Amino acid sequence: MPATTHALPPNAATVEVAVRWSDMDAYGHVNNVQYLRYLEEARVYAFHEWFGQERSLLEDGVLVARTEIDYLAPMTFNYEPALVTLWCSRISGAAFDISYVVGQRGSDLTFARAESTLVTYELSKGRPRRIAEHERAAMKVVLGDPLPLRSHKDRR
């Protein structure tokens, strides 16, 4: 089973996410839909760390436009939390990408790699908005290279 070979950015956040018995599917490993929940939970905690406590990007408005996951190894239940390491891997006018590596405490395996595209959104007007300078500055602190996902081979 693969380990992480991609160099993780030094300012990436790592968030512990509980692996629950109910996350398992009939095959005895974490169900694919649970990975989306792990990524979401890690993102909420990372945004709190990256953007501060007074107002977060979550309250100002952000939508998930795309998520792509490469499943690399089955994660089975044990009492150790999943470890989701995440960082910003692209910033544009109104959107940004977050890259994720999903591991587990006590294991050197990488269970999944993922990437989400998020769009900053003006909730009151119901439309995308440009990324504010303070948000862009916070993202640049945790900016790193994108992960080599399987679909990226088609982009070359």
UniProtKB/TrEMBL annotation:
Locate the coiled-coil region(s) and give their ranges. Answer: none
Q: Which InterPro entries match?
A: 4-hydroxybenzoyl-CoA_TE, HotDog_dom_sf
Pfam family name, one? 4HBT_2
Instruction: Output the superkingdom of the source species.
Output: Bacteria
Q: Which PANTHER family match?
A: 4-HYDROXYBENZOYL-COA THIOESTERASE FAMILY MEMBER, LONG-CHAIN ACYL-COA THIOESTERASE FADM
Protein name according to UniProt:
Acyl-CoA thioesterase
The organism's taxonomic lineage, starting at the top: Bacteria, Bacillati, Actinomycetota, Actinomycetes, Micrococcales
